[in-house]
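Go through this:
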Amino acid sequence: MTTATPTEHAGWQALTHSLAIETRLVIDGQCRNAAGGELFAVINPADGATVAEMACGTAADIELAVASARSAWDDGRWRHMPPRQRMDIFRRWADLVEAHAAELALLETLSMGKPINDALTIDLPETIVTIRYFGECIDKVAGAVTNSPHGAVHLIAREPLGIVGAISAWNYPLLMATWKVAPALAGGNCVILKPAQQAPLSCIRLAQLFLEAGGPAGVFNVVNGRGHDAGRALALHSDVAKISFTGSTAVGKQLMIYAGESNLKRVSLETGGKSPQIFMPDLVDLDVAVDRAIMGIFDNAGQVCNAGSRLLVHADIHDEFVARFVARAGQLYRPGDPLDPATTLGPMVTRAHQRDVLRWIETGKAEGAELMLGGCDDRSRPDGSYIMPTLFTGLTPTMAVGREEVFGPVAALFSFRDEAEAIRLANDSIYGLAAGVWTSDVNCAHRVVKALEAGVVWVNCFGDGDMTQPFGGYKQSGNTRDKSLECLAGYMQSKSAWFSLE
């Protein structure tokens, strides 16, 4: 049922009580219980309450899902469907997601604590744009006819890979899943999605809406479950042609091992990050730069792979930058009930993750970094897994809190004296997902962009972009690109056909 969008806290609370949550797996166009009957709980991190008991898929359910996808692939019900018909399904799918935006936003908030206003105004619009963008790409995929010798014709065709296994992250449950599923389907593949165990609710609904839009059974399957069971089985299955993963670097490395142990399937990884932002003394507007620095690390409570968690600030503006950062952070990010549209800072996704982030904060203190802001949980909300916005200054390059991915609202601020030092600090990392530079000097901006070892670089902004922008990193931040035509190409393969005319 299409849901109206509440505008006040009480309206969202009321909608929660009437919300029907699908807890089963989606396999071969049907919702079904896990083969073994096992369940796992989805916990609301804002108050510790159980939101739903979800079917917990295992290797047996992955086998069923792969068999369903294999059947759909073999009979060509999706890949052989005329492109314009597939585009029509994508259009209806996007329209249905838009019609159910309030419901989907609420599922995001209940499962991972994302402030409802963020889910409704950021995650849902970007999810809809993703579906529409890749739907529009379907009939734009073209091969080539090369300039071959007389007496021959050479064709290069683009074809889907087959069955794609997608393993998505919990920090943007719906959007990260759609970044994988939409281009994979647009390329003509069949998909099995294993959503993050912490937040699978919206992913189940996404598959239901695909079916409602006219998507054929077996083309898009969803198997909830644990990574070490369902995720491992998906990565090891020899009928799966590709694994697309967003998550930790450690798990990404393990998935590459599974690919080698099975069928050498392609593995596309978007993994960790510790993104630097460089603030030159000639930046145009210090207030704007500080606000964007704050948003770059505290959006989504810092649970963002490309979060600008390393702030590299020129010594000439260091003290004023820190003062303004401390003054503004509390104004911009206020913890509260995620169902309240006024809330701007939600909890950590789980109590365990809260403990991990707090341990990183204690590590920073022990290393000698100076705590300028936060550094604790929200003691006014003991039932939730909140952490207050935190800022460390006085860091040295060897301090772990400034090098390791904390994945929480913890900023590490370094001081530098010249451009060369800033670049050295920025590149002194195993990660290379994103970076930013703030300067009014266009020559400096070009030099720094060329020197930074990162897949995405923002100049005088941070986090901006659209669907034409390839998103992914260098080094141990992964080996793939999401969004853009480059992403779509990653879900397809080329076939060369040489015709002899003699």
Q: What stands out?
A: The mean pLDDT is 97.
